[in-house]
Amino acid sequence: MINDNGVARVTQPAKAFNSRESLILLLLKMRTFIALFLIVGFFAITVPDFLAVGSMVIMIKHIAINAFLALGITFVIITAGIDLSIGATLGLCGMVAGWLITKGIVLPMFGIAIFPSIWVVVPVVLLIGALIGAGNGWIITRYNVAPFICTLGTMYILRGAAMLTSGGETFPGLAGNPQLGNTGFDAIGSGTLLGLPYAIWMMIVLALVIGYIATRLPFGRQVYAIGDNEKAAELSGVRVKQVKILVYTLSGFCAAIAGIVVSSQLVASHPANGSSFEMNAIAAVVLGGTSLAGGRGTIIGTLIGAFVIGFLADGLIMMGVSEFWQMVIKGIVIIVAVIIDQMQNRMQQKAAVVAQKAVIQQGEASR
């Protein structure tokens, strides 16, 4: 409508949304920061030395493991996919590292075993993780298999393969043998730089790299386009299948990083390493604002979500809360995060409809 000065004014529907619901929508978008603030504040009051420098470094070192997985799976979820195999990938990659360090590469025809150095072990393990992810992406895109079903099957395959590498036993003593020239693996988990563990620096670097890809490179925009509307993205020239394969490849690669760090910190590999880690990663991503429906999410949100999950878990342990109750609380957090995500989706859709109606009404009024 036109006011007395001849200027089109905002229609009542748009005003109604702005006055009553824009604040709620803003709070929903800021939920991760609010949750982090409340959790840190609560444990700072109830747990002695929770904010002590030593305690924070140890907790962030733990958080880094979940952050590796969560950062890798963020792109997958933005494309409206899911990867349930990342925990099993972590476990298998750790077992491969343990095999190479303790058993070496046996060459029966020559009667010898080659023990590769750390500079060979790490790239090989990362390559295996990436290939596992690429395999998931290829099956999903080539045969149009639902990501949930494909990665669930892969999870069982990888768990079985991890068990087969050692008969279900642990590979201990991953520090290596100086006489074999394969020492240094344990330094990845125990080493520090400027007073911070390597794992924390690796988390920061990985977050910066993936954040740059998401915001600055065409690949990142294509990922969001696929999640928003896959058919429209394909019609606009996006190579949907190739992008999806790369997205799952990145997820497997990040899971391999986590597998290396976990095995290095423990100085041992066990086939059950990483069990249920995928749930914590998914919780961190969803809590960080990434929509399970695809098309929306940020790397910084995922990182903060990982901190929320990590501080919550470690805080409960420091309070002496039973492990069973910890599982209950984590489950509640996941459900609440999904509910809030759905609320945000509905409110954003409503806001878009209201804004569109306002533009149409203003156009009609100006005629």
TrEMBL record:
Mode of membrane association: Multi-pass membrane protein
Keyword Transmembrane: yes
Keywords: Cell inner membrane, Cell membrane, Membrane, Transmembrane, Transmembrane helix, Transport
Main location: membrane
CDD domains in UniProt: TM_PBP1_transp_AraH_like (cd06579)
Transmembrane segments: 33-60, 67-100, 106-133, 145-167, 187-214, 245-268, 274-292, 299-318, 324-340
InterPro entries: ABC_transp_permease (IPR001851)
The keyword Coiled coil belongs to this UniProt entry's keyword annotation: no
Pfam families assigned to the protein according to its UniProt record, in alphabetical order: BPD_transp_2
GO cellular component annotations of the record: plasma membrane
Cellular location(s): Cell inner membrane
Signal peptide limits: none
Single GO term (MF): transmembrane transporter activity
Family: Belongs to the binding-protein-dependent transport system permease family. AraH/RbsC subfamily.
PANTHER family: ABC TRANSPORTER PERMEASE PROTEIN YPHD-RELATED (PTHR32196:SF21), ABC TRANSPORTER PERMEASE PROTEIN YPHD-RELATED-RELATED (PTHR32196)
Name the UniProt record assigns to this protein: Sugar ABC transporter permease
Upper taxonomic lineage: Bacteria, Pseudomonadati, Pseudomonadota, Gammaproteobacteria, Enterobacterales
